[in-house]
Amino acid sequence: xxxxxxxxxxxxxCGAEHPKWAGRCDACSEWNTLVEExxxxxxxxxxxxxxxxxxxxxxxxxxxxxxxxxxxxxxxxSHRIKSGITEFDFVLGGGIVPGSLVLVGGEPGIGKSTxxxxxxxxxxxxxxxxxxxxxEESALQVKxxxxxxxxxxxxxxxxxxxxxxxxxxxxxxxPPAVMVVDSIQTVFTGDLEGAPGNVGQVRECxxxxxxxxxxxxxxxxxxxxxxxxxxxxxxxxxxxxxxTVLYFEGESSLDHRVLRATKNRFGSVDEIGVFRxxxxxxxxxxxxxxxxxxxxxxxxxxxxxxxxxIEGTRPVLIEVxxxxxxxxxxxxxxVTTGFDARRLALILAVLERRAGLAFSSLDVFLNVVGGARxxxxxGDLAVAAALASSVHDRPLDAHALFIGEIGLGxxxxxxxxxxxxxxxxxxxxxxxxxxxxxxxxxxxxxxxxVVGLSSLADLFKAVAS
Length: 465
Ligand code: TYD
Ligand code: MG
Known about the structure:
The protein is of the alpha/beta class and 465 residues long. The chain contains twelve helices and 22 strands.
């Protein structure tokens, strides 16, 4: 390795530059905000005014460059590299954009390496050369994973390396179409003193990979581990650098995984792709509703209700289960999984006040099936129906679903995209849909009876009959 570049420590709060690391920034007095970075070359200002042209590389030498009209630039968005893993391509907005930098975040063990090795294998299979850089695991570990994933995974080129300079030099010598770097927390540049994984290293390495991607037209897929608290380690700053951020999530105890875009310069965000982790890698789930409904139709107990959510642009049916049981001594419990506890408290209060259901001596457990999350108010009505069903120990119609927001007055309010939710319900074989009376569409899907409700009282009348 040549001489180390000169580095400085910059405050992430106020931008002040310091020659040495310190716990506190002299300029703004913030603690723990100094991050190491490569100092800008001192000669740049002089060189740029000399206008010599000629050699020159990144950032120095003041080379004269061409300035084409924007319209003359070749390439278009439609030229995307399809991995063939439909759900993955879909979340990206239709495939991988050449020269883009994509961050794939998720908790350790969720399946990021598995997913990207599968993507690499499919790309290779379809003739797009792929380089898989693993700093996380030994070559043997990668080989063992590939053995489980099938023959095409064995053809992926593998580099076990963590020094960024070596990675870039190797990739540059024979540029692949797509390069996977697993993970950003393990790579480091010799130009900075910090250990791999520290904020300065993560930022600098990501910035250089971005320049490499743009300059050579190589799509770079970066793995980033996310800590339990959210945020990709080497904080949020990374999300600003990259073009696209995908999050891979799910309960590691359950076998399905949800891939979601939270930032996308080349497509919409909040699209989801659902996968199942199997013995032979991840398998796309083409019909997420069937997965989230679990065995609802077979097993027909009280306290279970169905609703339709919009995940990104897709409607998905999910099942909510409530159990209200006589509380022991002391304050009754409210336990939720996949649902906001404050929202539950609100619905319980409205049910108590507007529908005369008493919960003060009952423990209440609420569970969204399949590890899904119910964050839309559209799910309120299903939660209320499930709670009432549990209190009375009377199962609801197994082919009914409930879509609507509950107001503090006990009124049922309409929600967005009702037609699409109803279409999904019809597709999944639902027979009755209970919605706000202000949301009943002029034409309902075939075989689905849509019932309009104005208040919780209407709901209880309708399901009792
Ligand atoms: P991995 O891709 O290593 O997770 P990450 O890179 O996000 O840390 O996936 C780890 C888990 O997936 C591990 O518990 C083993 C499991 N797994 C399967 O169940 N089936 C498979 O075919 C593979 C390759 C992994
Ligand atoms: Mg991994």
